[in-house]
Design brief:
Main location: cytoplasm
Low-confidence stretches: none
Distance between the termini: 31 Å
CATH architecture of one domain: Alpha-Beta Complex
Mean pLDDT: 85
Strand content: 15-25%
EC number: 6.1.1.5
Subcellular location: Cytoplasm
Pfam families: Anticodon_1, DUF5915, tRNA-synt_1
Family: Belongs to the class-I aminoacyl-tRNA synthetase family. IleS type 2 subfamily.
Number of strands: 41
CATH class of one domain: Alpha Beta
Strand order of the largest sheet: 11-9-10-7-6-16
Length: 1150
RNA sequence: AGUCCCGUAGCUCAGCUGGUUAGAGCGCUACACUGAUAAUGUAGAGGUCCCCAGUUCAAAUCUGGGCGGGACUACCA
């Protein structure tokens, strides 16, 4: 082993990435970071499973950088961190990519290819990019346990999911209902939204539309509407599908929309009437030119129809009013014919009042359910509830309905005429386009009954079935649901206990989603996914749900015994044995489960409900299913406090998961355990390209994470992502930013380390000396140690509250501004030359401690370089017990070392120095030229005290000999006064402006009077204003006759007169500088000793002679001679002053 | 369409509970420094704090309404 700190020629973070990775793998550091925490409290992290059927992108680095940062931090805080990797393997994207690669469509499944072959293809497809994912995980330094990842298609995983479904089933939370889905009566099948988005599906068609009149029921709820009304009162609602009007059960208004009540006449019958519609749509339904016509002079049949606006109402006010059923064919069971409110209502077209037929519109269905409005259903011969239109697209034939239902609910007189008619003529092969449609006939009927306000043809776009070319209906189709609405309050209450980052996603996006919760539609009519473990008899009277393979197995055996099945397809499986091999003997996917026919208690056959479940249930089940709970690992769910794996302490994913994984985790945990699934959550924003556009492969603006890591290493990438903007804001990703981080932060940190290594190696510093008590160290050391402890505190608090951006920025500022730019710069002389004394040792110890602490603080964010820095430092000193920074303990701030007063003083020093350097540059006075003095006005003793404490630092930094403090008494200070708005504002309010004006008029005498007496009285608008010294800020801005700089409250003047003595010293320093440069250009070692020969010149002879010892000591010269001339070709010519050149020969000793 | 996020210098972002010269880094221009050197410092130019209204003595900050960008969820009379 080398006995020196490693010195680097250049910083190659990409290579460091590789070297450190190799070391981690050789040392098995990741597993050690867990095993060394054995027995400690756990910190549970849930990995949202990615789908490996796509390549990972740069945004995955973002989410994973966040995850990794907190898992590493918690490890350093001593927790045993659980983080099991997983794969999401089911779902539509997988199916689509299989269909693409096999060149088939959904229709071909079961004909061209068997379900079995198809699912086998899915199984292969889904793990296609596993290698790439693992490689990214490795190279970006994401530590997650990949030894035994959970895989959602695994039979054991599915079994846990089944178990969860069974719990819900037993609690009555799983039920069969319907959702409104696009349905093609011609094809007899539902269409997915994907199918509906095929090109050409939406076509412009001309349909008969109607504005119908819904008569208000006059009762106490509607009485307020009747003020000034002397004719029948109606709500107007428009529809493009009059065939849905018989199924109307509600009217929907926008709560904030303004509605008007208008007195007029029905254009078809001429009957007087009063109607309600949205104010914004008045002009569509009434000719504004007719506004002045007299209502009294109207005769039925007149072309011009007069009208009169009687009143205005908001939608909110109309809610709750009842109306009469428009078409009385069928009576609904339940609450109906009421005005409700919905946010989706607009005033773009129609009347601003939406006709609601819950059985034929998705919005309708949802808003009806939320308001407790019943759908209009009929009972068929089998006793099943059905919409008024059957699956062929016809109004139900009377003979197909349950006679008892017909007797009680159906008005056969009016319905008979329409019974059995297709709602779209296209569905009836026998009809041509000329035949009148149901829409027209209903419209005509309404006109006759004085219920139609307007009937007209209207062109709009309407979806069509891609296979039959015929129009699609929105139609209720069977679906299994989870009754999440039943636990809504619990979901909300538990959500309020979760720490969301940012909070707004939790209260806003997620909170609002919970407030408007509808039941979770679990069904998917697909092939590759977790099958519903539910078997039913054909009539639906008997249902069985299975929560384990064991139960299903037993039931199969029963069926075999009953002769329903010939043999058990899961033969060979041993119920109750949970090892992998046993579970590999079976397959719980389709088509295998579909072949299982069971026998009900009454002897009837039971068939599996053909649906799969929503893949989001798969991933939301991972807290349980990742460990095959409750079949295995049961004890880890009922552990001593803080030792289990549920719930998670922390999760992090993109904000797009709010209604996805975040919800399903939360919902399942709430329903199963009445617990949150996660306690803290970061939902990060998107990664956009540098122009703020979404990244996509198609546009070619996607950034390849592998290339970026290869070029820069993952540390700068991670650091950039975490610190450039808050993770929950969108990140405009620009590689130039990554490069900047590399240069600014890692470059500076690396330089600081290299500086340390260079001198520590020269002086043989190994941190073998006893640590010098901080109180005995020089002020500069105590200052950086104070800041360091403040930093530890801030970084610790930031990470504790899940604020990685704050943490990273604080570290970066400390390293750049304080450690490198101030501490090291001012300390350079202490390391360079001189004795190996206490001051020097203190300088080394302080810098060493700062660096090793920075390594620990940065380790969660920048795991590679931090570990290299840590090990490089520790290798020689052995000060740290752990072989990797990731095994080390996170630093704890020592409050007693934080000295705010000292931090303030140093802040004065920094500001003063930069002001003086600014003045020098204005006067073109090189820093090498010493100057005599600065003058500082002091207005209070405290400031003087602070300034004096750092006086020497300032003087040496700016190369000035002394400070002169100017007090008031000298009479040469000019003061400025400014009111303190913060104290005066609340006291005097309105006259504040006038106070400010008077104060700014103060003369020097006024100011000193105020200062002397501590108060001053003003009279403004007869009001007495008593100013105290706290109410004003007094500063100086000018010292007449001097070169002055002012910043905030500090003013400094610089004496720019250069005496002969100062001039000579300046020349000496100029020589030192030039000689050092020559040494460096000659590639001498820092420690080489030299001899110097300088060719005489009258300009500097005296200065060189006078400062010979000084020059020699600084340049390590044992000899300095002024010579008349040097041999030709020897020596270097440098410029010492304007037009003054010197020839210098620097020779290395023997 | 709804919900949520964002809008401050050419670019990326700070600016907490309102307080009077709105900051930093990058970039640009000029200059300086120099045994940390593919580093560093100083200065300069660069702002209708998206717009409008309100509250207030005082608004980048609080309220309301727009506009623009983005995400999710919906697809509708």
């Amino acid at each position: 082993m080398s006995d020196k700190f490693r010195e680097y020629k250049q910083l190659d973070l990409s290579q460091i990435n590789k070297d450190v990775l190799k070391r981690w793998e050789e040392d098995d550091t990741f597993h050690k970071s867990i095993s060394t925490r054995e027995g400690n409290p756990t910190f549970v992290f849930y990995e949202g499973p990615p789908s490996a059927n796509g390549m990972p992108g740069i945004h995955h680095v973002m989410a994973r950088a966040i995850k990794d940062t907190f898992c590493r931090y918690k490890t350093m805080k001593g927790f045993r961190v659980h983080r099991k990797a997983g794969w999401d393997t089911h779902g539509l994207p997988v199916e689509l990519s299989v269909e693409k690669s096999l060149g088939i469509t959904k229709e071909d499944i079961g004909s061209k290819i068997t379900v079995e072959e198809y699912n086998a293809a899915c199984r292969r497809e889904v793990m296609k990019y596993t290698k790439e994912w693992e490689e990214l995980t490795r190279r970006m330094g994401y530590w997650v346990n990949m030894d035994d990842p959970y895989i959602t298609y695994d039979n054991r995983y599915i079994e846990s999911v089944w178990w969860l479904l069974k719990q819900l089933f037993d609690k009555g939370l799983l039920y069969k209902g319907y959702t409104i889905q696009p349905y093609s009566p011609a094809a007899g099948t539902g269409l997915s939204s994907h199918e509906l988005n095929q090109p050409g599906c939406y076509r412009e068609v001309k349909d008969t539309t109607a504005v119908a009149q819904f008569a208000v029921v006059r009762d106490e709820k509607s009485e307020f509407l009747y003020e000034g009304v002397d004719s029948p009162l109606y709500f107007l609602a428009w529809t493009t599908t009059p065939w849905t009007l018989p199924s109307n059960t509600a009217l929907c208004v926008g709560p904030r929309i303004t509605y008007v009540k208008v007195k007029s006449f029905n254009p078809y019958t001429g009957e007087p009437m009063t109607v309600i519609l949205a104010k914004d749509l008045m002009s569509v339904h009434f000719n504004l030119n007719n506004a002045d016509l007299s209502l009294d002079e109207y005769q039925p049949g007149d072309k011009k129809i007069p009208y009169q606006v009687l009143a205005e109402y908001t939608g909110e006010e109309l809610a709750g009013v009842n109306y009469e059923q428009l078409i009385n064919w069928v009576k609904p069971n339940g609450d109906a014919f009421r005005v409700i409110t919905g946010d989706f209502v607009t005033t773009e077209d129609g009347t601003g009042i939406v006709h609601i037929a819950p059985t034929f519109g998705a919005d309708d269905d949802r808003v009806a359910k939320q308001n407790g409005i019943a759908p209009l259903l009929v009972t068929d011969k089998e006793g099943k509830l059905q919409p008024l239109v059957d699956r062929k697209g016809r109004f139900y034939r009377l003979e197909d309905l349950d006679p008892a239902f017909v007797a009680s609910n159906v008005n056969t007189d009016t319905y008979r005429e329409f019974s059995g008619r297709y709602v779209k003529n296209e569905y009836d092969e026998l009809l041509d386009a000329s035949y009148s449609t149901v829409d027209v006939d209903i419209a005509v009927m309404l006109k006759k009954e004085n219920k139609a306000f307007k009937v007209e043809k209207h062109e709009h776009s309407y979806p069509h079935c891609w296979r039959t070319d015929k129009p699609v209906l929105y139609y209720p189709l069977d679906s299994w649901f989870i009754r999440t609405t039943a636990v809504k309050d619990k979901l909300i209450a538990l959500n309020n206990t979760i720490n969301w980052k940012p909070q707004s996603t939790g209260t806003g996006r997620f909170g609002n989603w919970l407030e408007n919760l509808v039941d979770w539609n679990l069904s998917r009519s697909r092939f590759w996914g977790t099958p519903l473990p539910i078997w039913r008899t054909e009539d639906g009277s008997q249902t069985k749900c299975f929560g384990s393979v064991e139960d299903l197995y037993a039931e199969i055996e029963k069926a075999v015994a009953a002769g329903v099945m010939s043999k058990n397809p899961y033969e060979g499986f041993v119920p109750g044995e949970y090892d992998k091999t046993n579970y590999e003997k079976i397959d719980l996917h389709r088509p295998y489960v579909d072949d299982i026919v069971l026998v009900a208690d009454n002897g009837e056959k039971m068939f599996r409900e053909p649906d799969l479940i929503d893949v989001w249930f798969d991933s939301g089940a991972m807290p349980y299913a990742q460990n095959h709970y409750p079949f295995e690992n049961k004890e880890r769910y009922q552990p001593a406090e803080g030792r289990g794996v549920f719930p998670a302490d922390f999760i992090a994913e993109g904000v797009d998961q709010t209604r996805g994984w975040f919800f399903t985790l939360h919902a399942i945990a709430t329903m199963i355990d009445e617990s949150v699934a996660f306690r803290n959550i970061i939902s990060n924003g998107l990664v956009l390209d540098k122009n703020g556009n979404k990244m996509s492969k198609r546009l070619g603006n996607a950034v390849d994470p592998f290339e970026t890591i290869e070029q820069y290493g993952s540390d700068p990438l991670r650091w950039y992502m975490l610190t450039n903007s808050q993770p929950w804001d969108n990140l405009k990703f620009d590689v130039a930013g990554v490069d900047e981080v590399r240069r600014k932060f890692f470059g500076t940190l690396y330089n600081t380390y290299n500086f340390f290594a260079l001198y520590a190696n020269i002086d043989g510093f190994r941190f073998k000396e006893a640590e010098i008590p901080v109180s005995e160290r020089p002020e500069l050391d105590r200052w950086i140690i104070s800041l360091l402890n403040s930093l530890i505190k801030e970084v610790g608090e930031s990470l504790e509250t899940y604020e990685p951006t704050r943490a990273g920025r604080a570290i970066s500022e400390f390293v750049n501004e304080n450690l490198s730019n101030w501490f090291v710069r001012l300390s350079r002389k202490r390391y360079w030359g001189g004795e190996y004394d206490t001051d020097k040792i203190s300088a080394y110890q302080t810098l060493y401690t700062s660096l090793v602490t920075v390594a620990k603080l940065s380790a969660p964010l920048a795991p590679f370089y931090a570990d290299l820095l840590y090990t490089d430092l520790n290798k020689l000193t052995g000060k740290e017990a752990d072989q990797s920074v990731h095994l080390a303990e996170f630093p704890i701030a020592d409050q007693s070392l934080i000295d705010k007063g000292l931090e303030q003083k140093m802040d004065i020093a920094q500001r003063a120095s930069s002001m003086i350097l600014g003045l020098r540059r204005k006067e073109k006075l090189k820093v090498r030229q010493p100057l005599a003095k600065i003058m500082v006005p002091v207005l209070n003793p405290r400031f003087r005290e602070q300034f004096e404490a750092v006086e020497n630092i300032i003087l040496s930094e700016v190369n000035v000999k002394e400070v002169e403090y100017l007090t008031d008494t000298a009479g040469i200070i000019k003061k400025k006064i400014k009111p303190n708005f913060k104290t005066l504002g609340p006291k005097y309010g309105k006259i504040m402006k006038q106070i400010a004006a008077s104060v700014s008029q103060f003369s020097q005498t006024d100011i000193s009077e105020l200062e002397k007496s501590g108060g001053y009285t003003l009279n403004i608008d007869d009001q007495t204003v008593a100013l105290t010294t706290d109410d004003v800020e007094i500063t100086t801005e000018d010292i007449p006759g001097w070169l002055v700089a002012t910043e905030g409250e500090m003013t400094i003047a610089l004496d720019i007169h250069v005496t002969e003595e100062l001039k000579q010293e300046g020349i000496a320093r100029e020589f030192i500088n030039k000689i050092q440069n020559i040494r460096k250009e000659s590639n001498f070692e820092v420690t080489d000793r030299v001899s110097l020969k300088i060719v005489k010149h009258d300009f500097y002879n005296e200065a060189v002679t006078h400062f010979r010892d000084y020059i020699s000591s600084q340049t390590l010269a044992y000899d300095l001679i002024l010579v008349d001339r040097l041999e030709d070709g020897l020596g270097t010519v440098v410029e010492i002053d304007q037009d003054i050149e010197a020839c210098i020969l620097v020779e290395k000793m023997g």
